[in-house]
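Thread: Newbie trying to understand structure tokens

Hi all, I'm a second-year student working on a class project, and my supervisor (Dr. K.) asked me to get a predicted structure for one chain before our next meeting. I've only ever worked with sequences, so writing a 3D structure as a token string is new to me. If someone could post the tokens and maybe explain what I'm looking at, I'd be very grateful. Here's the chain:
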Amino acid sequence: VGTTWDMLQKGELSPGDFLTSVLGVLRTERTPGVVGPFLGLAVAAAEEWSPTADVAAARLALADVALVLADDPDLRTQALQVVAGAASTDAHWAALEGAADDPDIAWRALVRRAELGDYDASAVAALVERDPDPEAATRALTVRAAVPDADAKEEVWRAVFIERAVHAGLAMRRLARCFWRPGQDELLLPYGERYLRQVTDLGSGGMLELGSIVAAM
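---
Reply by user tm_fold:
Sure, no problem. This is what the structure looks like when written as tokens:
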């Protein structure tokens, strides 16, 4: 898989062929130290490398394979994290209901529902209340970021660039990933130009804070 990933990056292999390769491995591989990184590569290929028209099918195939992996107790958590990020069928959502006690998986599922146009403010508020993570409020903002709606995108953009309400590092990367969702191209198109203008006028701030905004967004 390492060789095929390198080929994908060099333009020598299509995203579809890469996914066929990595998902083929994941259908039989059960070593946690291998499955985790390979799932990460599969997510990147499906969401970031695939042509827009192919993203939905790629994510469906990925979630189906991850759902099978979730039957293995040693792989359950990392597999369900992937299912939550790409859930597309009743079987996917049913499996996630059984993992609702895991806040991270619950956040990912809310992001996915929001991305599909099903933003549930009450469910977000309830999860903030029961999640002990100090970044729970930022996780709530990631759900908002995924909503395919101009007002939601503007709200999150201001939180990042104007209010500086998001911490550097993982919190910022999570938020950016939820903001730039595949399939929302028309909605997001103006933000490409806005980003180029905004990063030249970030003003004051520490190197870590500013660098995190620039790199993640």
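A couple of things are worth pointing out once you decode it. The longest helix spans residues 32-49. Residues 4 and 18 are 6 Å apart (CA to CA). Feel free to ask follow-ups in this thread.
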